[in-house]
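Let's study my pick:
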Amino acid sequence: MHDEHAIPNPDESATPDDSADGASRRAVLRTAGLAGAGLGLGALTGGTAHADAPQGAPAAPAEAVTAADAPPRKGKTMVGVPFERRSTVRVGIVGLGNRGGSMIDLFLAVPGVKVVALCDPVKDKTAAAAKKVTDAGQPAPATYTKGDHDFENLCKRGDIDFVYVATPWDWHFDMAKTAMLNGKHVGVECPVSLQLDQLWELVDLSERTRRHCMQLENCCYGKNEMRVLRMAHAGKFGDLLHGAGAYNHDLRGLMFDPDYYEGPWRRLWHTRLRGDLYPNHGFGPVSNYMDINRGDRVTHISSFGTPALGLAEYRKAHMPAGDPSWKETYIESDRTISLVQTAKGRVIRLEHDVSTPHPYSRINSLGGTKGVFEDYPERIYIEPDHTNDEWGDFGKYAEDFDHWLWKEHSNPPGGHGGMDYIMIFRLMQTMQLGLVPDFDVYDAAVWTSPVPLSHLSIKAKGAPQAIPDFTRGMWKKERPGVDSEKPQG
């Protein structure tokens, strides 16, 4: 049986495209265009001016970096807004590569879910996914394979309730936007966007269209993460002080594999940005522990990055002369380390490293006045349960603190140790029962905001960058999240 961490890069899909050459051209042009847009930071960060200061210029003092005013609200808040109740959830899936091609199995495994439409310009992938649908006893789904923008036609259908997006990062914003404008709820793989102005636009669109836009962060549904969450809410760690999360995953081989990341879209981002490209897996769970957007909020981030050496060294050792990768110049820090402050004074540490050799780790730690939990490997020390500075057995807390979802689905199907299925099951359950989703567009924006802001902070030699209040003040209201009660209906 494979451990979830042994699965090579299980978090993304390959680029949907109809030819390797076409994928390469489109990935290069689109990624370059996004980077050239300046990440859409504008006046919304409070730190842009520092990032563009001449080399060697002194950074502004930390107290000068303050939260920018939120743009005027264009609709009512989506905080606490439930789904419309429906007995059957009709799903359209966009992107059928590594991620989407496996997640379709989990949608089909949830009772009351129908996969009615599929989209990927690679016709073989779409056909293989369509066969999974019919093999599951459902009607043949509609397929959309006519180029990069055929997802727009899928979103126009009147028989879809939810659009699932599992494509390369640079398409996430356009697809989420299109889904909401066509009246669909949408869930997007990480990150939901890489530009700050686009995060605001998704927030505004969700409020204006009354459609939920969610960052489908599977790690929030990990067994350990959910156990720590319930223990934190029960006061086992005392008053919370600090936490940490990461995506430290050696992807060098996969990023240079011409068949895995078509384009190669993921490696190209290392030629464009220097910050934390993938903060969500670590940031999401720790944000849940600390009730971010539900009683506390993150206020600013300071980031630091190492030199970019790992990918160039790997290329030198493994890639033949004349390979297209030799034309690339990598600027993404091999390891980024960020410190995030909250309104209550708590500190969150984030790390990102996919370019150097090391075992997989999301760090996943939480500390408070009564003790601390650390993962990879899992260990715990809380008073009065433990003494003499000796780590305790985290497994002893399973019976009392495992989430009801894990008790109800003790052996879930799918990868990542079952967290993918738990996430999809719970999302579909909230739609079927007409419940408020466990997380919303405000969480998506916060969890993704370190991408552009860490890039700016590194350029500004660690100067703090303000994290906008995407909730526009609603963060002060305590409300439920992933630590949900089991529905009675």
Remarks:
- Confidence is low (pLDDT under 50) at residues 1-38, 41-67.
- DSSP finds 17 helices and 14 strands in the chain.
- The two ends are 35 Å apart (CA to CA).
- Residues 20-36 form the longest helix (17 residues).
